[in-house]
Structures are given as structure tokens and as C-alpha cells.
Amino acid sequence: MSNHSTKTWLDNWQQNTLLPHTKDALSLCRLAILAGHVELQPALAQRLAIIEVLSDGRPHTRQHLLQAVENRLGPGCFGKSPWQTLWADMRALRASDLRIGYSRSPGTEGYYLKYPPLGALVKQGWEDSPNPVQIEIYRSMSNIRKMQAMFDLFEFVLHQAQVGTRWRHPDWSDEEIEDEARRLVTGVEQAPEKA
Fold first, then answer.
1. DSSP labels for 16-83?
2. Are 93 and 131 in the same domain?
3. What is the mean pLDDT of each run of 10 residues along the chain (195 residues)?
């Protein structure tokens, strides 16, 4: 595995993982520890890259998954027996309670990341009283920053709706998935195109 490719991928991963609200000392420390382990253990880098590829909600054939991970970490990152290494990585990920499935349906063959059922995640999603620190943060933000945060939240929710829609309807086209996700998020039906 190319150290340069792994380092570049890891740097990008760190940038994308650290959202503005998670840049506290504890989160940075946790990420630094994880980054250190990734550099020392190529298998961990492979497994993180596998999760990253599968997180798009689409099924990926074994060959596509191998290629996508190698694009991130560098050619040969799976060693001399790529298929056996991928199989071992999948077993390890599943053993750590990640729900990875495999579809054999024609047109949607491949590995995909299952998401836990909503019933397992039910908990109160708000605080009974506003957090004074959060209120001060919002007050200190410019209107432009508040709008950007709103748009970022919309994009996040839209992406989650797309992942869920793709999981429920693996045979739908990208356009159908996009339309349904936007309908779910906004509640607005897309107007039919005029002929």
C-alpha cells in the first residue's frame, strides 16, 4: 500500500469528518488516535475505506469495491490475495456489528451497507430547555453563516433520504431516487415536465 496515497486519503477523511461543531479537544484527540492506528494498521485503513464506499447506499460488486478502495489507498493495498483480504475485512466489519449485506438480485448485485432500524434509535432528539452555550453560538454567528448552516443541514437530510430511498428501491434510477428524496424532505411533488 502506498503510504502517500493512504496519507492523502486519511487527510481528506479527517477534513470531511471534522464538522465545525465537532472541533473540540476530545474529538480532535479521538481522531488523532484513530489516525495513528490507521497509519500503523493498513487493515484498518482498508476497512474505513470500505465503509466510506458502501455509505453511498448502492450495492457494489466485489470487483468494484476492490477498485474503489484501491483508488483511495493505492494499488495493491489488499496484498497478493485481494479477494481473500476483502472477505476477511467484511467478516471483521460484520463482527463489529456493522450491518453489511449482499444482494444477489439481478441488476443490483453486490455488497451494501444496511442501516439499523429506526426503532433501535428512538430517543428524544431535543433538550427540554435550550442550552445557553448553543444560544450564544447562534447569536454570535453572522446571518450568512446561519444560512450556510441551514443549507448544509438540508443537504445532509437530502443525502440521508437518498440513501434510505436507494436502500428501499435498489432498482430505481438516480433521477427517481433524487425526485423521491426531494419529495420526502420538502413535501413537494415535482411538477411533471411539459411535452
1. HH--GGG-SHHHHHHHHHHHHHHHH-HHHHHHHHHHHHHTTSS-B-HHHHHHHHHHHH-TTTTTT-HH
2. no
3. 60 57 56 65 81 83 91 87 89 82 83 59 55 80 87 88 89 91 83 61
Tell me the residue range of the domain where 138 lies.
118-195
Pair 62, 129 in one domain? no
Residue 125 Cα to chain centre, angstroms: 21
φ, ψ for residue 59, nearest 5 deg:
-75, 140
For residues 17, 168, 90, 48, the Cα torsion angle rounded to the nearest 10 degrees is -10
Shared domain for 189 and 107, answered yes or no, is no
Could you tell me whether strands 100-103 and 110-113 are parallel, antiparallel, or unpaired per DSSP bridges? antiparallel
* Neighbour count for residue 186 (Cβ, 10 Å): 13
Cell 434509535 appears where?
A: 121
Q: Is the dihedral of CA 38, 39, 40, 41 positive or negative?
A: positive
Q: Domains in the chain: how many in total?
A: 2
CA nearest neighbour of 44 among 84, 80, 75, 88: 88
Q: Residue 95's pLDDT is what?
A: 83
DSSP state of 162: H
